């Protein structure tokens, strides 16, 4: 029986879609999505003018009983994203670019319809 509720993986994909559309509307150039290497994964990598931006997308559906999405980006996650970002910049010869780390918080209803999106620049 399908209740219309998204799986965790589907919810994450929906959140990343909303986040990438948001970034495109701000004229960011999306370089990569779900970029993986041995140190971890980065949800979105983009250029904001001359800035190389690494974006962690956090999506929640329904209530905020477990806190806001951005609150789940703890120190361990920040360290992993930072390490992975350095590997990406090295591998793509972008170490000379100024870097920024953003968090995009997406709230949806259980079916995946956008309720709210917040973009935190220089989040960590």
From TrEMBL:
Q: Which SUPFAM superfamilies match?
A: Restriction endonuclease-like
Report a single Gene Ontology molecular function.
Answer: nucleic acid binding
Q: May I ask which residue range the UniProt record assigns to the signal sequence?
A: none
Q: Which domain of life is it from?
A: Bacteria
What Pfam families does the entry give?
Answer: UPF0102
The similarity comment for this entry is: Belongs to the UPF0102 family.
**What is the official name of this protein in its record?**
UPF0102 protein E1757_12165
What is the organism field in this record?
Answer: Paenibacillus piri
């Amino acid at each position: 029986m399908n209740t219309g509720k998204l799986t965790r993986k589907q919810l994450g994909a929906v959140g990343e879609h909303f986040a990438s559309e948001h970034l495109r509307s701000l004229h960011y150039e999306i370089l990569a999505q779900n970029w993986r290497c041995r140190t971890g994964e980065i949800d979105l990598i983009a250029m904001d003018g001359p800035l190389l931006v690494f974006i962690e997308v956090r999506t929640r559906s329904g209530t905020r009983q477990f806190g806001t999405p951005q609150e789940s980006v703890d120190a361990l996650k920040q360290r992993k994203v930072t390490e992975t970002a350095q590997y990406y910049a090295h591998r793509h010869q972008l170490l000379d670019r100024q870097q920024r780390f953003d968090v995009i918080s997406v709230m949806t209803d259980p079916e995946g319809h956008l309720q709210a999106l917040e973009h935190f620049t220089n989040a960590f």
